[in-house]
Amino acid sequence: KDPDLLLGGLLSLNLHEFVTDVEEICDQANKEEKMEIQLADLTKRWQAIEFLAQMYQNTDVPLLAIQEEDFEALEADQLMVQGFMASRFLAQFEEEVIGWQKGLANVSD
């Protein structure tokens, strides 16, 4: 919200001559925003998940486990992250997405 940004200033940019480019930039920004929101939701979800310690068979070796509904979320989140990896809009979030891919794979194991 720039009070100095007026219609005349926008028109002087001649953006109407670059409609396709402007549409592509806007589309990319929308897709990146959607990915950013989904990554934030992913972070919130996994901050709330509680891990349980269960003893392995008849030993004193504890194993970490998660609830069944959390396991379903894990599978869904892994699919979402795979989709991010295939996205042409990955560059902005590549490091974070790779971190999630590795982290979710570790939880899955």
From TrEMBL:
InterPro entries attached to this UniProt entry: DHC, Dynein_2_N, Dynein_heavy_linker
Q: Start and end of every Dynein heavy chain linker domain?
A: 4-109
The molecular function terms of the Gene Ontology recorded here are: dynein intermediate chain binding; dynein light intermediate chain binding
Q: Name one GO cellular component term.
A: dynein complex
For this entry, list what GO says about its biological process. microtubule-based movement
Q: What is this protein called?
A: Dynein heavy chain linker domain-containing protein
Source species, please? Florenciella parvula
